[in-house]
């Protein structure tokens, strides 16, 4: 992928580890990734490219480790990207379209390590050796216009690791398209009064602020049993353009449908359960 408005100058790129991987790789692994990224061929300003690190045969599929570099002076987000597999003669042995939204936003002038998987039937290996194969972008490469939002309502008293957890969670969420609004549950826990509190992150990808007037919530436990369901009617709740806000919604003990609650695993659905009446306001928000 190329941006022809500014091209030709060689740019230096730094490693960019996805936030969800930061705590899962060792210092040694990161140092190895840095060394491998530094050994990649030069990239020019205005280019986005992919380089193959290795291809493993996992038995039923191929694991491909790649480096995707962003030579643009702005972040880039990749969505449905066609990759082609070629050999030393540049012959195409296979292709597949990957959804790379989980890669998140790749900062300017950085290189992001990632892994993709090809099924065996996707690649006609023949007499070719895996070490001689590489992955290239198809000419249909598409970058989507997405928005990077930041919190606007985290209290100043939230500092250190507690604050970083909120910000890390926000960065790990799926990409937010321009014009999109999303709601995601951050945490579900019991209250001191044996009720249940749900923390929800609301993201606004629109160029104008939004008013949030009602939020239906249904909570299910680890066995998919309905725990609570209702609609929260809100007053004066606004989310600014390209911002995120976090709110806590609480069901009291009397509003819970069952008492034998298992919240070691949970699921929040932003719909009213079909067996629940929509007439009454429930709980409270803050």
UniProtKB/TrEMBL annotation:
<dbReference type="InterPro" id="IPR030910">
    <property type="entry name" value="SLAP_dom"/>
</dbReference>
<protein>
    <submittedName>
        <fullName>SLAP domain-containing protein</fullName>
    </submittedName>
</protein>
């Amino acid at each position: 992928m190329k941006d022809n408005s500014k091209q030709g100058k060689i740019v230096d790129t730094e490693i960019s580890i996805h936030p969800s991987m930061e705590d899962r790789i060792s210092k040694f692994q990161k140092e190895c990734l840095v060394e491998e990224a530094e050994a990649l061929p030069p990239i020019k300003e205005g280019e986005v490219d992919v380089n193959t690190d290795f291809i493993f045969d996992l038995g039923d599929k191929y694991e491909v480790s790649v480096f995707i570099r962003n030579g643009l002076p702005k972040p880039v987000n990749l969505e449905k990207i066609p990759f082609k597999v070629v050999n030393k003669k540049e012959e195409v042995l296979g292709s597949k379209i990957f959804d790379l939204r989980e890669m998140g936003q790749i900062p300017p002038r950085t290189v992001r390590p990632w892994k993709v998987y090809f099924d065996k039937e996707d690649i006609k290996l023949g007499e070719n050796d895996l070490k001689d194969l590489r992955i290239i972008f198809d000419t249909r490469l598409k970058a989507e216009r997405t928005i990077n939002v930041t919190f606007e309502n985290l209290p100043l008293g939230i500092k250190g690791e507690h604050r970083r957890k909120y910000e890390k969670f926000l960065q790990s969420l799926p990409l937010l398209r321009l014009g999109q609004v999303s709601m995601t549950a951050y945490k579900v826990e019991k209250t001191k009064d044996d009720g249940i509190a749900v923390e929800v992150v609301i993201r606004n990808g629109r160029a104008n602020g939004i008013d949030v007037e009602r939020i239906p919530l249904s909570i299910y436990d680890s066995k998919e049993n309905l725990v609570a369901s209702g609609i929260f009617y809100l007053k004066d709740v606004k989310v600014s353009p390209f911002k995120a806000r976090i709110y806590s919604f609480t069901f009291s003990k009397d509003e819970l449908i069952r008492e034998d609650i298992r919240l070691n695993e949970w699921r929040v659905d932003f719909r009213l359960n079909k067996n629940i009446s929509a007439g009454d306001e429930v709980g409270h928000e803050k």
